[in-house]
Amino acid sequence: MTTANAYPVTQTIRTIGILGGGQLGMMLAEAAMPLGYQCVFLEDSADCPASLYGRVFHSEQLEAFIEAADVFTLEFENTPTATVEQLTALSKSGSKQGMFPPLIALDIAQDRLKEKQMFNSLDIATVPFMAVNSEAELKQACDELGLPIVLKTSRGGYDGKGQFVIKQDSYIKAAWQELKDAVTGKGSLTPTPAPLIAEGFINFSREVSMIAARTQNGQVRCYDLVENHHHHGILAKTQAPAVGTSHLLKQATDAITTVMNHLDYVGVMALELFVTKDERGNDALLANEIAPRVHNSGHWSIEGAITSQFENHIRAVVNLPLGDTDNVHPAIMLNILGQYPDISAVLNIDGAHYHSYHKEERDDRKIAHITLMPNDVADLEPALAKLVATLPNKMGLEKKPSPIDSQPKVEDSLTKTDSNNTVESKVLAIEDGPSDKAINAKSKTEKAKK
């Protein structure tokens, strides 16, 4: 039996309020519609991608946005925590049916130091790191971690801002002078006072990520590990599943399940990881960061998994059982940056699935993605070559990468020979929004420090 507006009489959630209206919000709304749910969005850009799928409320219309929705989620981890606190309070009072993911997940994801401390408290290995509150503590970190290190603001910062690579002792004073205001919340780096974080350099072979979903009753389902490649710090390509990682699958699933259970998490989460070697020379994983939302490295799942990350996030938020996360078929996802390709040329390639974000063209802006799933797996690489040839911005994918070149670099100066050693630095950033999350390679692997 249904009501006149076609909602089941037992369905108490009809509208999902999404904080943010970018392409992630758009794809969440696309996934919600077949399940019978509408979405509204809190977003200051009226013509955002999500506006195609529901009403957009300006941040000054917060009360109207709240009134329009039954349950809430987000598409962007830099959402103001004050807004999430207000929505959480409404849920606790019973006037609304939930704010997912929980505030604690957002708080941790916005703070690099808290994030790594959480990993280590859960016995999940990371790069070695230390908190830095003074120039003296920075000198101590350089001594204990060993140079080179990267010094970052623990909050804020993106696209190389809010970080300083210290290659020798003479750089310490300049690094402290550049970033010290973040400790007191002065200047433009971050309005929230927070310690800096010093991270050590480690060797790694590649970057992988895992996406998982968790329901309100604690059910967890994980997708396969995928491998990510970047161009100028922006995700260019994701391969699903990551080849040759079956022996790492349990470690990754255990890690993300542990984190989600610890946070009492609801929804989809991404965990970024680096493949390195342990003391015995075996492959091991280091956790880099979490993203408390659906994630760019999971876009392949729309066609490539039985249930997409977007549908599973909606299911979790409205308290429905999760769908099967198995791969339907091996796939490669490419981001389209800056300029749209000829869609006819793209779709002339067997197995190509095109997703436009309806954004204006702008340098290095994510405006679409394409997922490749040819029927024969042997055709995957040839199809990729054909696809790359159609792209105005080829993101370096037309070149056959060497093991070194397959990872993007930080500043060119870091790849040159210093008087004491040669440092080859690598930066990884697979955020859907701005990110300066980085990890760097040193001539030896160091143990993660708590």
TrEMBL record:
> Which gene is the coding source of this polypeptide chain?
purK
Record-listed ATP binding positions: 112, 152, 157-163, 199-202, 207, 230, 288-289
Name assigned to this protein: N5-carboxyaminoimidazole ribonucleotide synthase
What GO biological process terms are annotated to this protein in UniProt? Answer: 'de novo' IMP biosynthetic process
| Cited Gene3D superfamilies | 3.40.50.20, ATP-grasp fold, A domain, ATP-grasp fold, B domain
State the similarity comment. Answer: Belongs to the PurK/PurT family.
| Keyword Cell division included in the entry's annotation | no
Q: Where is the composition biased (Basic and acidic residues)?
A: 396-415
Question: What is the protein's quaternary organization?
Answer: Homodimer.
Q: Which UniProt keywords apply?
A: ATP-binding, Ligase, Nucleotide-binding, Purine biosynthesis
- Could you tell me the EC number(s) of this protein? 6.3.4.18
Highest taxon above the source species:
Bacteria
Which reaction does this chain catalyze? Answer: 5-amino-1-(5-phospho-beta-D-ribosyl)imidazole + hydrogencarbonate + ATP = 5-carboxyamino-1-(5-phospho-D-ribosyl)imidazole + ADP + phosphate + 2 H(+)
- EC class: ligase
Q: Which GO terms describe its molecular function?
A: 5-(carboxyamino)imidazole ribonucleotide synthase activity; ATP binding; metal ion binding; phosphoribosylaminoimidazole carboxylase activity
Region Disordered, annotated ranges? 395-450
Q: What does this protein do?
A: Catalyzes the ATP-dependent conversion of 5-aminoimidazole ribonucleotide (AIR) and HCO(3)- to N5-carboxyaminoimidazole ribonucleotide (N5-CAIR).
What does UniProt give as GO cellular component? cytosol
Pathway assigned in UniProt: Purine metabolism; IMP biosynthesis via de novo pathway; 5-amino-1-(5-phospho-D-ribosyl)imidazole-4-carboxylate from 5-amino-1-(5-phospho-D-ribosyl)imidazole (N5-CAIR route): step 1/2
Q: Name one Pfam family in it.
A: PurK_C
- Which segments constitute the ATP-grasp domain? 116-318
